[in-house]
Amino acid sequence: MKFTPAALEGLRDQHWPQIIAELQSVVPPSDDPGSLSDMTWYHLQTGGKRLRAILPLAVVQTMGLRPEAAIGLGAAVEMLHNATLVHDDLQDGDTHRRGKPTVWSHYGTTQAINCGDAMFYYSIALAQRITAPSEVIHRIVDTLVGYTLAVIAGQVDEFRFKERTQPTVADYFRIARGKTSGLFALPLVGAGILAGASEKTLRTLESVGEKLGVLFQIQDDLLDITGNKGRDRKGTDIAEGKITLMTVHALENLPREQALELHAILRLPRDHTEDTHITRALALLEASGGIARAIRYIDDVVQEIHEECKGLENRALATVLVGFSDIFLEPIRSLVHFR
Questions:
Q1: Contact 97, 161 (CB under 8 A)
Q2: Which residue from 115, 97, 109, 108 is spatially nearest to 46, judged by alpha carbons?
Q3: What are the structural domains, with CATH classification, of the chain?
């Protein structure tokens, strides 16, 4: 039996109010405009699928615990994820997220930095409140801090590699495994620790989490060029000069003159990048076969997840992990034909 989007939505609908209550226990809502609490809740209320918050509930459920056991972990992961988004929006210059002005756009850059900084610490405070033996809490907090640093290192690499004339596919995957995979490995590994999983199972959860992060990043890159990402406009990643799997492939495979043209577009300041530039860049990505290559990579990663899960003795857990890979690709199902 497959773990479906409906199953994930059912967990979210049933338990999201409990996660909200846990978040409020650490950050009580405030009526004071511009306060730390006000900014935090302003951002948290921008919406989203809440995937990372619900993943640990789905995992512990396969290991003999009730989903409620992972509410605290889900809240901590949700807060951490949103902390990264507050800073990410500022660094990328995104003025809107899901149709709503971003924190820096609404409150200013200085206050957005303060808000994001606090949300990183709120995530630790939430993890410390998890109901579990002290040694389990300690290990979960250590794990959270480790993945937080990996996410930040990935963000640093994204800006470093953006300046390279010829970034590589290896550069791309290094960034994805840092800034994206950490936020998927954390809820899986954290859930495993909470449920008392074996070290072997924890290694599998970490590896699958890494692959799910890569999968999510590629689909996110593809989603950006279809215009369905909830940002300012279609092709925002191009305007930001971001390294995506498609742009790396194009720079490596286009004729030199066209590769230089694409590189020049990617290096334009965001506010100087016009729709005509984005249209031309998208045409070059298509001509290079970059979009088709990204879709093939997705199929490869999905198959790696399937193979890795075959080694799990807990078949319910394997089913859930494989189901995650399908769920992650729902937004681009029309582009990708996967098993």
A1: no
A2: 97
A3: 5-332 (1.10.600.10)
